[in-house]
Amino acid sequence: MNFKKLILPFVFFTLISVSGFCAEIHTFIDTSRTDVKNIEIGDKVFFDVQILHPKNTQSVLTEKNESENFAILNIQSRDIPKGEDRITDFNFTAAFFDTGKQKIPIQEFQIINENDTTFIYSDSLKIFIKSILTEKDTSGIKDIFSPLSLKLGFWDIFFPLLIIAIIVFAIIIFTRYKKGKPIIPIRKKKIEPAHLIALRKLDSLRLEKLLSRGKIKEYYVNISWICREYLENRFKLPILESTSFEIKQLLRNNEVEEDLQFVKILKKCDKVKYAKFLPSFSEADPLIENLENLIVKTKSDEMDKTDHEDNIS
User: Would the pTM count as exceeding 0.90?
Assistant: First the structure.
């Protein structure tokens, strides 16, 4: 008997009743386009999944199920009216990449209407995939020669490694020359963190005891310079060349914490330097400690580590 379509293994019939609607599903190989007796690795396999469902519902493929040995190459679908229902016909084009007994995996579909959704699954179809090589071909495959053992001496290994090392060294020298860099990298000096410089200078200033010697203006000039130098080195801003007002704007624009406290110290120093104002000892003495606290609060976390390692560019 000649059938246009051979159903393997048997027509899978499923009746699902959910929320007042039902669906039937049929899975089969399209034998009009697939020679099921002579399928080889990589040949196209055509199989269909037909779903009968009410007209007010929609049938969609929700999961394309594949495997290591099975791949779906193409999917086409069409709707066919049938009385009060309709049939959604999914045409799959697939291929197998292994021989022997194989299975077309189950495919997942959804039946959707305005109020509800349900899942429905196709059948898993068995199929046999033939090898491209015949038994006669495989039995005649032999090595031309038996495997040879590889014996390497010292010079067989040394000379290739020496040549590779010379080539790598030449590439490095040429690259540095093209970039205008010295052939031998120069070791860069380590840059001392800004807060360590400032704190060391404040300690030295404290040891000079300028206040007790009556050198109040010199004391404030040093405080101002150390504060400005720290801000410039720490935040990379032109602080040394700026006025107190300009410093206030620079710190605020760069969102520097404790900006007002720094500006307050600088204004006190400017008042002594330019207005001939002489503050009392009790007012001047805590200035060093106040500046030290601000420096510790605003120092960079990365500054505790070595800022600049020896770079080999």
Answer: no
